[in-house]
Amino acid sequence: MVDRFVTWFSVGVLTAGMSAAVLAGAGAAIADETGSSGADKANTSESSKPAENEADSTDQEPAESTEPESTKPESMEPEPTDEDVAEEEPAEEETTEEEEPVEEEPAREPEKDKGSDRVEDEPDTAAAPAAKAVVATQTRSKDTSEAKVDDTVAETATVAPAVEQEDVVLDAPVVDEQAETEAVAFASAPATAAITATAMAPRMPAIVRFIGTLVFNLYAVATRLLGGPPILPANSTVTVRSSTLRIDCACEDGKGVEVPADWYIPQGAEENPPERMIYLQHGFLAAGPWYSHTAAALAEQTNSIVVAPSITSNFFAADACWLGAAPMHEGMAKLFDDGNTALAESAAAAGYTGPIPDRVVLMGHSLGGGAVSGIAGYMVERETIDRLAGVVLLDGVGLDDPERMTESLRLVPLDIPIYQLAAPVYFWNNFGVGLDALVEARPDTFVGVTLVGGSHVDAMRGGNPLIQFAQELVAGFSKPQNSAAARMLMVGWVNDMFAGNQEEGIYLEPGEAFSFETPKGEASVVALPNTLTKWFPFNFLKPLVPLMDGLFTFESTCVAESVGARTAAGTCQGSIAA
């Protein structure tokens, strides 16, 4: 697809002019308006501790206040009150040398007994690597901790350090409140922690976000003018109409985004409503109408209602409601919640008033493949996975974090098939990150095939000849037999997913090759995993691809009030890597 070339071409000029601003903003993104509630501080402070530690080490003097504590046992040895104390002191020193923060924490509890403050204060009494150990042990009872130190020794040796630490404790919350709004990482329940694992990213300067959004808006206008509406193939029996679709992805509950959506209705649907639906998601910088021939073939040959939304690729979006972001993926998954009427309302606006099918196959091309992988993972969490018949990835990739794609796919029960229809590994499919993600998630089952000599756009068929030519010029021209084979493979897999069998599709052993006839000639496939690659002029840029992927971590997201939940609802925060 045009994913990366057009990305570099359209954003290249922008990034060249913005690079200085991005680098400057990355270093200076530490202060901004506060937005977290007091209840959230305890949850979010741990993820922002590395930054706080650096600030404390320069602005305050924790070393001076903690050093007397750390040397306390040595200074007390010449003054034991009896032989028992003299014998116990060395033993205590051995057990506390590496757990200094544990010893010091109880000394502050009588002074400031607030749960959130205790978590924030840990870096002031210990080195950064020990911060997590302190948090884990801070709830230890005061009586048990104080029993380790003789009462007479505590009176003479801990009074002065305690006073020095009190000054540090008073200053710490101010620093935390300023830093918390700049970096908040999603924390999730143990079962889904890997999906939402995040890393603190530099804050994107507002001017960069503004200019980037302007560029994407202009690009969207241009593609609508040039791409036009969906165009059906000749002699098609399918009806296509367009409307808008509401997706609950926003910074506040009850709000969302309205996106264009094309509805493909098979013949006779009004009299005999189909029981199948296909959610078809386009790739990066593409649009739903560019897949009109693919969608029409799927609707006609699988007797399914096909909906193809067009979602922005603007990764500068302040609310993170773009094609590659987790909040948008969850918003899409909400479409299949019980009681959500967005799909029915969109279909009715497009002229279809029949019932929305209960069973769905998720299908996504390129970055759309990463998107539907995220949808599937969220459907598991939202307990709507019973509606999912299967997932088909059309050379699907994930740009920002391939591991997140792997974990989303791993959540899906093994009895729900997930297949990848891939091109050989090359520049346009991000050198096979999507293939690797699926193979890693399901190492012991059939996960799809590679089209021999295929292109990233084999499955991307539309009725606009200008768009069709441009995408093949960019990503590599498709062989007619491979385009026909891609359609046959998709249709066979989808029909089997809905039927719950493996009678119509092609299924092979890992690495097995197979050739078959298509209306355009013989095509060949090799089952995944395999070692097929494709030569392309841009392949030499492979070492730079991770650097380009880093651009997609500059992502502002909406964090829930309960940081442990994967949801886009809540308040808008800045600079979150997802």
Describe the structure.
- This protein has 578 residues and is an alpha/beta fold.
- The chain has two domains: 38-180, no CATH class; 244-572, Alpha/Beta hydrolase fold, catalytic domain (Rossmann fold, 3-Layer(aba) Sandwich).
- It contains 22 helices and twelve strands.
- Helix 18 runs parallel beside helix 19 (433-441).
- The longest helix has 26 residues, at 3-28.
- The protein is globular.
- Residues 105-118, 140-150 have a biased composition (Basic and acidic residues).
- Residues 32-150 are annotated as: Disordered.
- Residues 1-24 form the signal peptide.
Strand content: 5-15%
CA(first)-CA(last) distance? 24 Å
Structurally, the number of domains stands at 2
Query: How many E-type strands?
Result: 12
Contiguous runs where pLDDT drops below 50 for at least 5 residues: 1-202, 554-578
CATH fold description of the largest domain = Rossmann fold
* Name of the CATH class of the largest domain: Alpha Beta
CATH homologous superfamily label of the largest domain: Alpha/Beta hydrolase fold, catalytic domain
What is the mean predicted local confidence, pLDDT? Answer: 72
Short description:
With 578 residues, this protein is an alpha/beta fold. The protein contains 22 helices and 12 strands. The strands form 2 sheets. It has a 10-stranded mixed sheet with strand order 1-2-4-3-5-6-7-8-10-9, sandwiched between helices.
